[in-house]
Amino acid sequence: MTTINSISRQPTQQDYASPSQFKFSIAKLPKVEFFCTEVNIPGINLGNATQLTTLRDIPLPGTKLEFGDLSLTFLVDEKFDNFEEIYTWLRSLGFPADHTEYANLVEAGRDRFPTQGKELSGVSKFAGREGTAVNVGATLSDATLSILSAKNNVIKEVRFIDLFPVSMGGVSFTQQASDINYITSSVNFKYSYYEFATPGKTASTVPTT
């Protein structure tokens, strides 16, 4: 039910959100999440349909949401372990040298999908094999962006469902830098959708009253 009393409509929390109060976690990339320096909540676009009339065409809400890419920037560690984590995931999805690269990625996903990593009825761990379907669940990961309060308590979570990397930026070395600027890289992810949730609770839903 919509509240129309102007006093009751005033916000109870008047603090502003800080861009530096966050932490990011992703199951498949533990070394990347530790060095994360920047991440975004992607924009969304509903679009619209048009109802034709003899007078003015009437815009109507669309029915399919489009989610922007999740972009993450991270400091590259000295041994390039976190850079290699993403590289390996991307390479396994693209399997440029051998189909077993994709099979190894499925096998490594047993922590999330314990029944995978072997041939199942109607399901193959090899992408592109004719006559079979591929269950991609083990190749994906969930991630959580935790928004922190001024006291570093988690007050809101943004949960990304079934994401996977689609691109990663390269890195450059130089002997001409006047000061040490540590190497950073960025990675873009696609995903099914994201949702807001209170820590320890299920995600928010559309109200029915």
Topology diagram in text:
Elements: E1 22-26, H1 30-34, E2 36-39, E3 44-45, E4 48-51, E5 58-61, E6 66-67, E7 70-75, H2 81-94, H3 100-108, E8 141-148, E9 154-168, E10 184-190, E11 193-197
Antiparallel strand pairs: 1-8, 2-7, 3-6, 4-5, 7-10, 8-9, 9-10, 9-11
If you had to describe this structure to a student in words, what would you say it looks like?
With 209 residues, this protein is an alpha+beta fold. The protein is 13% helix and 30% strand. It contains three helices and eleven strands. The strands form three sheets. Strands 1, 2, 7, 8, 9, 10 and 11 form a seven-stranded antiparallel sheet that branches. Strands 3-6 form a two-stranded antiparallel ribbon. It has a two-stranded antiparallel ribbon with strand order 4-5. α2 (81-94) crosses α3 (100-108). The longest helix has 14 residues, at 81-94. The N and C termini lie close together (5 Å). The model is unreliable at 114-122 (pLDDT under 50).
